[in-house]
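Researcher: Please generate the 3D structure of the following complex. Treat every line as part of one assembly.
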Amino acid sequence: MNNDSSSRIVERLSAWIAGAAPGARLPSTRSLVAEFHASPVTVQKALQTLTARGLVESRPGVGTFVRAVRTARPADYGWQTAALRASQGPRRTAVTALRDAPNHVIAFHSGYPDRELLPERLVRTALARAARSDAAISRPPASGLPELQTWFAQVLAATTPAGIAPPTPADVVVLPGSQSGLSSIFRALPGNGQPVLMESPTYWGAILAAAQVGVPVVPVPSGPDGPDPGELARAFEESGSRLFYAQPNYANPTGAQWSADRRREILDVARQYGAFIVEDDWAHDFGITTSPVPLAGMDDSGHVVYLRSLTKSVSPAVRVAAVIARGPARERLQADRAAESMYVSGLLQAAALDVVTQPGWQAHLRSLRHQLQSRRDFLVASLREHAPEVHITRVPDGGLNLWVRLPDAVDPVRLGADCEREGVMIAAGAEWFPAEPAGPYLRLNYAGPNPAGFGEGARIIGRCMSTQLTGR
Amino acid sequence: MNNDSSSRIVERLSAWIAGAAPGARLPSTRSLVAEFHASPVTVQKALQTLTARGLVESRPGVGTFVRAVRTARPADYGWQTAALRASQGPRRTAVTALRDAPNHVIAFHSGYPDRELLPERLVRTALARAARSDAAISRPPASGLPELQTWFAQVLAATTPAGIAPPTPADVVVLPGSQSGLSSIFRALPGNGQPVLMESPTYWGAILAAAQVGVPVVPVPSGPDGPDPGELARAFEESGSRLFYAQPNYANPTGAQWSADRRREILDVARQYGAFIVEDDWAHDFGITTSPVPLAGMDDSGHVVYLRSLTKSVSPAVRVAAVIARGPARERLQADRAAESMYVSGLLQAAALDVVTQPGWQAHLRSLRHQLQSRRDFLVASLREHAPEVHITRVPDGGLNLWVRLPDAVDPVRLGADCEREGVMIAAGAEWFPAEPAGPYLRLNYAGPNPAGFGEGARIIGRCMSTQLTGR
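Model: Done. Output below.
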């Protein structure tokens, strides 16, 4: 209600300002309070909004005034072309997974879970508690809050069998999100000029981070069971790379989860080539019919650099992740993080730790598992019914995505445009391939808003596809 | 009180755990509640602390157990040496300004303002409000919350004279702290292989960011009045650089504020060489006897890339800053930020905007000005009284630091060690020089805790210095 009356004042004053001369003085707060029958706080809020919109400016102790709109000649920045030279970094590309969707749209394109899948109450309580704590006003150590380092280490240690030394809190570097971790890893770990091996297809954010850093990417084909160890060995051999980026659990986009044998084989190949495996355990909290088993739990020789994020499962506002690494690699990563961003907001760290150590967090994860399962199953069933030409490569045991192969004759980009016109957003598979796509694929995310619309969404995908296939 | 009883339980249970066998089961929450006469919440908190310390593990629905401490052979990570090759990035160096100080120490070394100089009440209220808002649970646009972009643009626009096109919200990219901005600027803006010019001495974080990115730094001497335009022109000419990093207001460490003439001359040189000036307006909120005048307000041709942070003046937990740039440079920076960290926590952005748009923020800045003035003046007077050999190069009109020249015979590093043994932490000037230090300098920060100790601190500096000078 407070919000409503503030918006009403903003609206009425904006109209008044539109007709006023620059520099004209607004009525005093007191007279606005009287005029709008609103509280001083509400009036103040409205004035702040007008200030933020650039319509008025306030001079403390004097009053609030209509801002003069200044016009000036538009500039040409051509001179910058000479200073900047050719671009070396990544081009600004519109990534489908980051696009916002209007409310009425059926959204299969995003990589982020919908709000209804987040532990909203835990997050709000934790943030409010952190706002009252010391973390709101102090600077944490560069490696992270010690209690949070401990938590990250312990969760991984819990998967470490006897005989393998578990990671310690000192192995943990807290990050402002896993994307920052990827950038640091690709900056700090490849020796001079060495390329990075990546599963293909793989997470577009990793491909982007490597491009930003200027590290060449060598794709290693990967399918529903993960990469083939022989192909991986050949890629290490041919490329001289010492770094393999992979997602052993519920890989994005394929949904692959490596078997125990596959995990052992891949780790053996990395050992043989003296190489790192960057394990991006992005879906650690998104198991459905299995549980994630970190590869890093099998290794205490520093071969696996483990990346774990809380942003997706806790809240997009709680940008907290961690990298766990041992030996000199950990030092390189720590140095890179310190130079890049010094430290991560202690408030976000405290809130993240609070959320994941509440009893409600385990309850949330259990309920999330069921929700993801029914969303996944409904999407699979809807596609089988309404878009039978779509080949589901694997019904994933966890994660947020279904990776589907289209018939060869279907152009995924055109399909995306056709579907969008009918209110369905999908992501063409090409964005997940470090090189050319190996075929026409789609990634369908089943964690978006409004799962009740999945049936209708599948129907529209099926219809748009058969229009392409039949030419009408 | 709640805290106290929780600590008491932690202490008692830790003692019990020390004597218990691995896997032993802790008493139930109910019996702990009875035994310690504490609430279930307090007992739960104590168990969480024990879990975070790695002493116990809880199996939901079963109970809490003493963790087995596993021992395993220590690993050697020598194989990593081959994979990592020689280090290209910055070495992990212990930066003096980031060192924590024990409570009783007189701290002149830090770069961060003490808690008493922060708008603590505004920060806590804003964070609590943000925790209840949409920002706690949603993902903001990659460039930042539009209202915050607007605010950053308007503050700079307010300093833009008529005839110069003011920056617009679309020119603003919100950052997770200014250090990230420096990294992005040094990655994205220098053409292939071009060096960066920097004032010398200058902010160590900028030197570090350039080292991380692998951009060579060319120092341009700068003093109490800022850099000499002729030297700057020569440096552009000789180096082929197109980027000059500078702090025109209350430079860190020298405290220099460029005169209006100096600003015009420097901008003319940059125009002549088709170059960018990166204006790090770090001390925008720290004016004392003058107000900061951004160089960026004089430029609408995209030459000045403007960096403004709220971390230091709002709270270390609110890691929010912005870069304002126009033309292709802005696109390059936006692309780099997206690849590096995708977006900045919307919660921190909402809280930052809330703080700086409250009426209390202006009142806070006025009070801050007085506090900084009396701290600065007391330190200056104390040094003049107790350490007269210290030459104060300039009493700064703003900022947080006093830059002092020591007699040639004094070794600043030894002085630092001697002072620290007597409970005073200082920072030797060498960390602020991109190349060799131009002389024995100290940076003394007057924004640290316990300003009442400044007199004693100056006395100790004076004493340690004369021990060095007289050899006893």
